[in-house]
Amino acid sequence: MTETVVTGAGLAGLTCAYLLAGQGRRVLVTGWRPGDPEPASGTSQAPGETSPPARWLVLNELTIDLLREVWDGGSGLFDGAWPIRCRHVRWGGSSTDQPLEQPSLAVDGARLAQRMGRRLAETHPDLVRLTAAGPAPSVAEWLIAAGHPSAGPAGGRPVHIGRRHMISAEVGLAAGESAATSHLVATGPAWIFLAPVGQRRALVQAMVPGPVADPVPLLRRLLVRTELGRRLVAPPDAAVVVPAAPRLRQPPCGPGWIAVGGYAARFDPLSGSGTAQAVRTAVLAAAAIDAIDRGADELEVRAHVTDRVLTAFTEHVRTCLGLYTSALAGGDPAGADPAGGGAGSARTSWGDGRAGLDPAAWQDEIDLTAAALRGFGMSAATSARFTLTGPLPGWRLVPHSR
Ligand SMILES: Cc1cc2nc3c(=O)[nH]c(=O)nc-3n(C[C@H](O)[C@H](O)[C@H](O)COP(=O)(O)OP(=O)(O)OC[C@H]3O[C@@H](n4cnc5c(N)ncnc54)[C@H](O)[C@@H]3O)c2cc1C
Fold first, then answer.
1. Is residue 323 one of the residues assigned to a domain?
2. Across-strand partners of 201?
3. How many Å is the maximal CA-CA distance in the chain?
4. How far apart are CA 290 and CA 287, in angstroms?
5. For labelling, which of 26, 277, 333, 395 has a CA lying 20 to 30 Å from the CA of 292?
6. Mean per-residue pLDDT of the chain
7. Does 58 sit in the ligand 1 pocket, CB within 6 Å?
8. End-to-end Cα, the chain, rounded Å
């Protein structure tokens, strides 16, 4: 059987490779990073395990369940992950007085990918090869474009919905701070998320409405505007910035290729469901290839994949519009609740008495989001051609009876 090439060894690419190998296919994964020897805080490290720098993800229960389901129980994948029990939200009208019960796990995404890669190679030693960079072989049966620059012949144009960027840093938690509660605060030019990733360590992320030249001083200034700064041992002294506006690849598939994960549709981290969405696209891609192999019409299957990705992305952009609008100072909270239910009193503060996100900074992002949504409305998805069934003996796309 000819090889399927997966260009990208993130969570989506590796999940797709695992499912494809489970179908008995030979799979080459490019972009695999062996990592460095430093363990990340808050996680345990098995003997012989190496790790690249931590890339923290907070995974909700739905995402964990999905990953376990796809990875045959996921035994060992989340060892050492840090449990978070509650979430405290200060977000315009959806603020909560008390932390809400919202169990999740703080997971080092880079460590998780390493474990997935190892599991993949161990489970399918005769079918799977993991390799560092390198161009995709031109005679692949299928190409799964999963984010690595060697995406080869995959086409599609990235459409960005906004310009926002996320600044991330790892910080020390002050003594007495809860290591089981995360905090989300909308505060003038940014929203800030603080999540424990260990007994005395935390991830701090600030979303700002544009590119950032000098992230550390900006993050420090943002933290002192809120009560979050007081929860830290010291201000951050290092930070990374990544683009974090929603982004859709149009189309997300073509002849012989399918995009997955953030390469197909990147979600705003505010949603907390980026990883779940990435895994769903991996499942969909593997099931699509399987369906075509079993005789389904390739054009119909590709149209179905395009519909599903566009529908999920449109829904996400609609949710973003509601959430950001509701966080604007004086915004209308109706229909939007990042607390995940149960709005409380509106007491979001910039630290100087004003509440919510600054409209002067954020209105442009919101307008871009609304305009994109109108555009997607015009290319509304058609009704589903297939039903996805699973998980065993493998996820399948079954045609609707006509
Ligand atoms: C800043 C950021 C924070 C996120 N936080 C969450 C979260 O808390 N929960 C959740 O379910 N999903 C989160 N996501 C989404 C999630 O990382 C991806 O959707 C998921 O890993 C898809 O994997 P992939 O294989 O498509 O891409 P990957 O190859 O895993 O990621 C593509 C690129 O995105 C960047 N990236 C991905 N994740 C992070 C991160 N945590 N920090 C910094 N850079 C990152 C890296 O540059 C990476 O090379 C986040 C995404 C970003 C960009």
1. no
2. 172
3. 65
4. 5
5. 277
6. 86
7. yes
8. 33
Contact 170, 203 (CB under 8 A): yes
Residue 332 falls inside a structural domain: no
Q: How far is CA 108 from CA 8, 105, 363, in A?
A: 18, 10, 33
What stretches of 98-239 adopt beta strand conformation (E)? 100-108, 128-130, 142-145, 157-160, 165-172, 181-188, 190-196, 201-208
- Tell me if residue 342 falls in helix, strand or coil: coil
Look up the CATH number of the domain holding residue 161: 3.50.50.60
135-193 pLDDT, tens digit per residue, is 656 667 899 999 876 666 678 899 999 999 999 999 999 999 999 999 999 999 999 99
What's the half-sphere exposure (Cβ side, CA atoms, 13 Å) at 333?
A: 24
Q: Which range marks the domain in which residue 55 is found?
A: 4-315+381-399
Mutational test site, ligand 1, from 192, 212, 240, 242, max ligand atoms within 8 Å of CB: 242
Least confident of 218-227, 271-280, 294-303, 334-343: 334-343
| pTM for the full predicted model | 0.90
How many Cα atoms sit within 13 Å of 19 on the Cβ side? 31
How sure is the predictor about 1, in pLDDT bands with cuts at 50, 70 and 90?
low
Question: What domain count does the chain have?
Answer: 1
In this structure, the strands spanning 157-160 and 356-357 are unpaired
Q: Token pair of 316, please?
A: 């996400």
Give the model confidence (pLDDT) of 310-324 as tens digits: 999 999 999 999 999
Contact between 141 and 3 (Cβ < 8 Å):
yes
**Which tokens belong to 211?**
């590119």
Residue 205 Cα: closest atom of ligand 1:
1
59 lines ligand 1 (CB under 6 A): yes
- Is 227 in contact with 194 (CB distance < 8 Å)? no
Q: Is residue 61 part of a domain?
A: yes
